[in-house]
Batch of 3 targets.
Target 1
Amino acid sequence: MNEIIEYVTALASNIKDLDKKVNDFIEQGYQPYGSPYVTEGTEFLACQAMVKHKIG
C-alpha cells in the first residue's frame, strides 16, 4: 500500500466548481480519496478528499 504523505480537501460552492478544483489537484499529483460529499450547515459546500502518495 502506498503511504499517504499529504491530505487536503477540495471545497466548492457547487459541483461544477468542485470538478475544476479536483482536476487542479490531480494536475498537482493528488488523487481523490473516498467519495465526494456535501455539507449543509451555514453554507452549502461540495467536498472531495484528495491525497498525495509517497513515490518509490
Target 2
Amino acid sequence: MKTMKFIIHHSKFIIATALVALCAACTPPALDESKLFLTDAQAEEVIAQGKCLTIEEFKATYMTEEGNYCMPDQYRQRSKAGNYYLFSIDTIPVSDTPIYIRGRVTTDDYAGNFYKTLCIQQMVEGKQQALRLSVDAGSIGGMYQLGQEILIRVDGLAIGRYANQPQLCLPSYNNNIYANKAEEKIGWAAGRIPFAIFKARTQCIGMPDQSKLYYETLEITDYNHILGLEEARSWDAKLVRIKNVHFTGQYYNNGTPAKCSTGDPETDQNANVFAPTTNNLNFPQARVFYDSNNNHSAVSTSEYAKYAHFYLPADNYWGDIVGILGFYYDNGLKYSQYPPASDDWSISIRSVDDLSLFDGDEHWLYDANGNYKPGYEYSKN
C-alpha cells in the first residue's frame, strides 16, 4: 500500500513537472526594445541602403494630377473639378533601391475622430510638412502613438487624393450601390493600406515624444483665403494652433453660419453639440468658431467620436484650438456652380483636450485641478 501511495505521488510530481515545462515553453521571450525602436543611427543605416525623400519631395515626385493607376474616367464621377482631380491614384513601382519617407505622428484615435487614419509631420528647414496615412486598422494609435517618429518604405504603395487631401494609400474600388448619390461615387479612389502591409513597411524611430511635436500658430485668415485646390494640398494635414477664438453655437448651412438648435442630437442634425446624427451617413459635422475680427472657421467632428454629444462651449469661453488642419472638397461636379470656399477648411481636434478655452479663471469642461466637470454631455434628463 505504501508503494502504491509512492507511485501516485510520484505520478503527480511527473505531471506537475511536465505542466511547468510546457508552460515555460509557451512563455514568449521578452521583447527586445532594439527590434521595436530604431535609434537615430540605426535609422540612418537603413536609409543609407536607399533614399529618403521629404514629404513635399515625395508628393512632387510621385503625385500627378490625373494619376497613373487607371483612366481618369474610371474615378468616381465627382472627381474632376475643372482641370483638377479631387480623387486620384499614383502607384509607386517597387524599387531595387528602397524609397522612404519619415515623420512624427500628430494624431491620436482614442477619442474616435481619426478613424483608420494617421497624420505625420516633418520639419524641414524650420517649416512643417505633413501627410495623411490611410491604414486599415482600428485603434491604430495604440501601435503608432502620438509623438512617435516613423520611417516608411513607400515604393510598392501609392499616393493619391481623397476629396483633394493627399495621402499614402493603395487603390480601392467603391461599388456601394446603396450609398447616398451612389451614381456619383462608384469608381476608383485612394483606399486604406492593409495593416499587415503597413506594419511590414514601417519602423519606429526612438520612443514616442510629444514634446517634439510642432504646433504651427495660425490666424484664421492665414488659411481660409487659400481656395486654390493645388495650393491647399500643401497645407492639408498640418498640426496647428488657432489662438484667441471662441465658439458661437453655430454650424455651417451651405457655407453660411446658422444658429444650432436645442434638439436631441440623436435625431436633430443641427443640435448644439459637436457632432449630432447624420443618419449614419457619417460626414464630418462642422461647428463654427470666430476670432475677435469676426473671421470664422470650423471644428470638424465625426458623429462616432466619444465627445460627439458634448455641448458646445458657450460663446464667453475664449482661447486656443489645436488640431489637424483640413481642406475637404469632394464634389467636382459642382465646381463651376460651387467653387471652393472658406468653409471647406476645418480643424479636426483629437479630443476635447485640444480646446483651451477660458472664462476668467474658469476652464471649459475641466476645473482648475484638471477634474472633469459633469453636465457637459447632452442628456435627455
Target 3
Amino acid sequence: MEDIQKLKSYADLRRLVAPDAFAAAMNYLAWHNRLKMTAMLPVRQALVIAFLADRKPIDQMLFPSVKTFLDENGKSLPASIDGCRLRADELARFLAGQT
C-alpha cells in the first residue's frame, strides 16, 4: 500500500489510478489551476479527483460542481489514501445529487 506522505506531485498519482483516470484528473487540474484567484489544488485533493475519475468519467460540465464540493469540503485534507477514496465517494454522491 502506498503511503500518502510519498505523494509529492501530481505525477505521483499515476501509480494509484488507471491511465484514463489520471488523464481525466490532469484535465480537471489544468482547468482548476488556470482559474484566477484560485490556489493550485493540493496533491491529496488531486488524488480525490483521480479516484473519482477512476469510477466514472468527469465531464467538463461537472468541473464547477467538483470545485464547489472541494471548496466546501477541502478545509481538512484526507490523512490517508483510504481517506481520499472515501472523499471521492462523497464527491460522487454530491455530483449525483445524493448529498
